[in-house]
Specification:
The chain is an all-alpha fold. It has helices spanning about 1-15, 15-35, 35-40, 45-60, 60-90, 95-125, 130-145, 145-155, 160-185, 195-205, 210-220, 225-235, 240-255, 270-280, 290-310, 315-320, 325-350. The model has no long low-confidence stretch (mean pLDDT about 80).
Length: about 350
């Protein structure tokens, strides 16, 4: 019986190997490319390059490999990303988390609520998009991209086609942000008096879509920006559970349905564990060489997750999303970049 269980486990493990191997090849290749003077001069780090190469491969010859690689790619995109974010806590101390602190929480709350309200009003009333699709795009834009869309789907009882449209819409603008935010810092932030690398990191983490995209964009600016961006983003991700709870209550009251049949609320435990790891790291229990080894492993895991994100970004799916959802995603993206910048500056100014 035990031998049968081991054989089944090995068979299950083999299903993930092709996809994980593909993401690993992309990760190590882009790590080498990121160290080349030409790429560093363009501001393209290993994580950004992993997404770019992933997108190129994903829309060329990857469809032929999809049946063999998809399970491993999805594993890297979801599980390895979460593990990579948890291990990212070993780069931080609790003091750095506290430095983001109350101002970061206030900014996150303002951005989440305003973005979702805009999505609901503009999507359904101005663009004529059905409410479920508008809610899903709003959830993805205001919290954590595709993960928030998938978490909100059972709460709003959305059909698979609407989920696919919402995911495609938030993915394209989140990916665009990877290249736009470093450009904003290098070309425009110098004209804003008093803005620091940490403040720009909070701006990045409070306004970009996906966790992976925040890591890549922050990494392209500076380590200080990357740290602040990840902290701000993880605080925002932790708001997913209360957001879903409030959305569930609103929908049940709006439709008159009984709340006894509501869907269970998903809590992003990896965000909480990330904070606990940063707290643990603050006491310096582990020797420096061990922490350095963990950080090296973390770089590999994050690069594999970025590659998986690129591989699963289908140009055809984005085209099929249609004009109106795309327009809503664009409006929300402009709000996140410009409105989010204004909110960040006002909160920092008020609390300084």
């Amino acid at each position: 019986m035990a031998e049968l269980s081991v054989a089944r486990y090995q068979q299950d493990l083999k299903r993930f190997i092709p996809g994980l191997a593909l993401t690993a090849v992309i990760a190590f290749t882009t790590a080498w490319l990121g160290n080349q003077p030409v790429m560093s001069g363009l501001g393209l780090g290993a994580l950004t390059l992993a997404i770019i190469v992933g997108i190129v491969v994903g829309n060329t010859f990857y469809p032929a490999l999809h049946p063999q690689c998809d399970e491993g790619v999805q594993f890297a995109k979801q599980k390895l990303l979460r593990l990579g974010i948890i291990l990212y806590g070993f780069r931080l101390t609790f003091q750095q988390v506290m430095d983001v602190g109350l101002s970061g929480v206030i900014i996150d709350v303002l951005m989440l609520s305003s973005t979702f309200i805009f999505a609901s009003v503009i999507g359904s009333r101005l663009l004529g998009i059905d409410r479920k699709t508008a809610w899903l795009i709003g959830a993805g834009s205001s919290i954590c991209g595709a993960a928030a869309v998938l978490a909100a789907a059972p709460v709003v009882k959305a059909e698979p086609a609407k989920v696919a449209v919402a995911v495609a819409t938030v993915v394209i603008f989140g990916t665009l942000g990877i290249f736009l935010y470093p450009l904003i810092w290098h070309e425009f932030a110098q004209y804003i008096p008093g803005i620091s690398l940490t403040q720009f990191g909070i701006y990045t983490g409070s306004t970009m879509h996906e966790v992976a995209q925040v890591v890549a964009a922050g990494h392209a600016v500076s380590p200080e920006t990357e740290n602040a961006a990840v902290i701000a983003k993880m605080l925002r991700v932790m708001m997913l559970a209360p957001f879903l709870l409030l959305l569930s209550v609103f929908i049940s009251r709006d439709s008159g349905e009984s709340r006894t049949a509501k869907q269970p609320i998903i809590f992003p435990w990896f965000a909480l564990i990330f904070i606990l790891v940063a707290l643990f790291n603050s006491f310096h229990f582990l020797p420096a060489p061990m922490v350095a080894g963990i950080n090296t492993l973390d770089n590999v895991l994050l690069a594999m997750a970025m590659a998986a994100l690129g591989l699963s970004t289908s140009a055809r799916q984005l085209i099929n999303a249609g004009a109106r959802p795309f327009m809503l995603g664009l409006i929300l993206f402009v709000w996140l970049v410009l409105g989010g910048g204004a909110i960040n500056l006002l909160v920092h100014q008020f609390m300084s």
